[in-house]
Amino acid sequence: MNIVILTGAGISAESGLGTFRDAGGLWARFRIEDVATPEAYARDPARVHAFYAMRRHEAAKAGPNAAHHAIARLEADPRHRVTLITQNVDALHEAAGSRPLHMHGTLAGALCAACGHRWTAPLAMDETTPCPACDRTTSRPDVVWFGEVPRHLDEIDAALSAADLFVAIGTSGEVYPAAGFVELAAAAGAETLELNLEPTSSRFDRRLTGPATRTVPDWVETLSGPAA
Known about the structure:
- The mean pLDDT is 92.
- Helices cover 33% and strands 20% of the residues.
- It is globular, with a radius of gyration of 18 Å.
- It has two domains: 1-17 and 64-104 and 150-228, Rossmann fold (3-Layer(aba) Sandwich), CATH 3.40.50; 20-61 and 107-143, SIR2/SIRT2 'Small Domain'.
- The protein has a six-stranded parallel sheet, sandwiched between helices.
- It has helices at residues 26-29, 32-35, 38-43, 45-61, 66-76, 92-96, 153-161, 181-187, 212-224; strands at 2-7, 81-86, 101-102, 105-112, 118-120, 139-143, 165-169, 191-196, 206-209.
């Protein structure tokens, strides 16, 4: 079976990483316009770097939970071909053994805004950090900000076109283009399934509600059997 999985912040919430749009979430504490746009970086790079340094430190303390491990088991099942797409910038999927497509980049990466060079970000990166390639102090987090184009879209489109099953896990369904993946998969003939604390829309064929650490392992067990 060709399975395409999209994960959002909800899958990492039980690992201690905050979500974005809930009460008390990141966007309740910080304005998108101040920390997550190219304009914010141009206006106040120190503030943007401080925000991502905070997130980098939080992510470094977190570990994958049962939902991440369940997806990794499904990827290893030779009966299925799994494409894992994540909106998350943490590395918890990798820590569980998965190979995700990070459509919004990663906290672990740094990018030179001048020459485009990429490297592993130090925990203490700030606006004075020089690029290892050109030595200019134009370093930025290697993440996709609001107003920028997400990554891997051609690969994602091909996977959605060939999917037998599309599954969205822990995502709000509010941020495009990811919010439109369910329609693209359905138009290609795929069954669609949402796993979330609460349903986000009526666009899915089926829904399983509850915490990801319960619903994801239970769902994977229906496809691959119980964990060894």
